[in-house]
Here is the input.
Amino acid sequence: MVHLIGNIVWQETKVSREDRYRLNKHKSCLLWFTGLSGAGKSTLAIALEKELYDFGIRSYVLDGDNIRHGLNKNLGFSPEDRKENIRRIGEVAKLFVDAGLFALSAFISPYREDRQMVRERFVPGEFIEVYVKCPLEVCERRDPKGLYKKARKGEIQNFTGISAPYEEPLNPEIIVETDKQTLEQSVQQIIGYLKERGLLDMVHGG
Ligand code: ADX
Here is the structure.
């Protein structure tokens, strides 16, 4: 099949996704962490990455603050810029998943429609939405970067939870409640989910 957009033809390659699974000895997927700033998305993604590493799984964390230093440093926090932020990350995550890795993305991604747009780029089962749930009051009390304080004083505009919306996922694959469970419990909950879905099964051959 020839894929064509304008004058651009999709270039087929000779190494298939299954070839990569066999080489890596594992499958690939995207774990999409979403939640308020300070809810614990990055902490959880980083802890899970270490756990997956110990299982022999190749994974990589895409983190909001880090990506906004490079790839997305031209983007701000208007709804349009957030949409573009999430679109680009979705595309990058797709490349990672095509390359046979576990991609772990930690972005507020406050809009349902934007998260849905990413979900639709993946086959069912490959996109795993993890709602990192934590009440705003708790995130604000934690305020690890002092940003809530600034947002309350009006020094930061469009701050999620204060002056910009956060749309909770309606049907996430996983919900972790970081004000109620420990980091280790949350990590094991996600590992349990991955095991149940066969995503940690060894892929043989190759
Ligand atoms: S997203 O909404 O586009 O998904 P992203 O996860 O990339 O956001 O970036 C969020 C991080 O940027 C926050 O953790 C915080 O450190 C910082 N930040 C700076 N300004 C804002 C703002 N107005 N709203 C939310 N986060 C902000």
